[in-house]
Amino acid sequence: MDRLSAPPFSSFADVSRAVDWALVTRRSVRAFLPIPVPREEVESILDVARFSATGVNIQPWHVHVVTGTMKSRLSAAINEINDDPARSSDLEEPYDYYPREWIAPYVDRRREVGWNLYGLLGIQKGDKERMHVQHGRNYSFFDAPVGLFFTVDRVMREGSLLDTGMFLQSVMIAARARGLDTCPQAAFNKFHRVIANELSIPDNHMLVCGMSLGYADPSCIENSLVTERSPVGEFTTFYEK
Predict the structure, then answer these.
(1) Residue 92: how many other CB atoms lie within 10 Å
(2) For residue 214, which of 9, 35, 39, 78 has the smallest C-alpha distance?
(3) 203-223, pLDDT tens digit by residue?
(4) How far is it, in rounded angstroms, from Cα 195 to Cα 197?
(5) How far is 211 from 146, CA to CA, in rounded Å?
(6) How far apart are CA 55 and CA 116, in angstroms?
(7) Which residues does the UniProt record annotate as the domain Nitroreductase (predicted)?
(8) Count of helices and strands (H, E) across the chain
(9) Helix or strand run (H / E) with residue 64
(10) Which of 7, 48, 192, 220 could form a disulfide with 207 if both were Cys (CB 3.0 to 4.6 A apart)?
(11) Which of 240, 223, 231, 229 is nearest to 28 (CA)?
């Protein structure tokens, strides 16, 4: 597609409705159908996402796509450690995704989404075993047929994380526009060394996050979770004078 081409719709109103739909209906899906996603479709999504904004066109992201046997092998390697508290507790994150000290309103939002999800699944507060099992589903990509990992060169700085975040959003919106769903997953981060070993990712690359990609399973209750977003007035300040 020509980057200077006119919109493929009769009006910009049609364009905005399509874009708005993809943005608003994008959600973190936590149960997928066993329907394969052709490699050509994944390549098509990445081919569109590569036009994400990036400072001075540095394009710092690299994508590692896992499917089939490789995905299963990687999941097994991670789950073996995740199910061993002694080994799992020794793992370190490649960078601080979340704050080390939570404050309001962020901690309240975090708790709300957690308890809403566990509530849908019938997991009671304090049921650590079922919480562990549910959290462990991250590492099987929630049964999605495609897993993606996003890395950046360690020589890059915080700005490259911003660029990669925009690239991630573009991937998710492009997927949604094709009837696919995603779940971005920082849960993979503490297993970055396991992932790097299994996928032969060079030492100079740092894992940013993982992502599941596929078709949502509408029969699974966890996919009925819809998180709230603050209205524009709560996070925006306009300066007019």
Answers:
(1) 9
(2) 35
(3) 999 999 999 999 999 999 999
(4) 5
(5) 8
(6) 37
(7) 24-215
(8) 9, 4
(9) strand 61-66
(10) 192
(11) 223
